[in-house]
Amino acid sequence: MKNKFFTLFIFFFIVFLCGSYEKQWIQPGAEQTDLYFPILQGKRVGLFVNQSSLVGKTHLVDVLRKHEISVTKIFVPEHGFRGNADDGDKIENSIDPNTSIPIISLYGKKVKPSASDLENVDILLFDIQDVGVRFYTFISSLQRLMEAAIENDKPLVILDRPNPNGFYVDGPVLNSKSFTGLQPIPIVYGMTMGEYAKMLVGEQWLAVTPKSRASHLQLTIIPNVNYTHKSLYEPPIKPSPNLPSIQSIYLYPSIGLMEGTIISVGRGTDKPFQIFGHPKIFTEFTFIPLAREGAGNPLYHNEVVHGWNLAGTKTEVLKLINSKLQIKYFIQAYQAYPDKNKFFPVFKSEASKKSLAAQIQAGMSEEEIRKSWEPALSNFKKIRKKYLIYPDFE
Q1: The pLDDT of residue 89 is above 70
Q2: Taking the model in full, what pTM does it have?
């Protein structure tokens, strides 16, 4: 009898565990094929994809072709179709050797499809893993694709994916425009691509004339399953060459701020955005950047760099960032560098970065800098709330 009760206990315990796992198991939009296959059947499809566009372990291109859905054009963002090009490299057009489908780069000579690019396209399908950071260029690529869809009267389907940094919102709100920041949003904006697209339409932030044309966009968002903004989602494949782990993704908003200064952020190492420093800063921790895929000519290539090591377990890094943009490391690096006048040589891409540079140069404390982000940050949070698809973190 005891064995019988023990067996029943084990059985129900396993059922409970499986049920809990099933509830927590997050499925990206790409895996909800029954929701978007019917929309694509019989149409010529233009894809905006890269190496992260997977359905399980199979690339979306192959899944669509297997189900006899016609893919006529592939559009690609920064880092290219395979996701292995260096940061900032201009990607050229090409032909996919496996399928003979034309690949059109939207990170190089142009950033959105032309009318001729879309002549043999009936519908556009977007599927890219984002990391929820303003200066990560995929949200700018999404905006330009949306504008091309409106201008050429093409329906757009977004296969939504979880945001691995979607559990907080923080940072200065942008007040100028470049491809590394097209909208008045903070550095960490806490939205998925689908939610962000809804905001672009709803706030009339798309660069179309007249602005009211944005409401005519035939937009379909295929949502994630079991995702909320409290979820800690780890992408199954690195979203870009220098974000190889969830630790790098978590630290990217804070350490990425220092790109454009004289500081190495660890490109050319196995821990990019987890370590940072400079050859003339003297600390015990050192590293040597070396050429590798995605970092063909890293800053201070083959030199000994002194600096700081923030690497740790996922739990340790989450505790380190504490759901905030950590500008203290930026301040620390500036204070440790001997020649302050040369710290910001090309720090000119965004007005928010210029402002942050000026604040750090002026010796403002972290608390004073954070106060300067208001009321713009709180106002953005109110705007964001209107467009959320998933339960929020607060």
Answers
A1: no
A2: 0.89
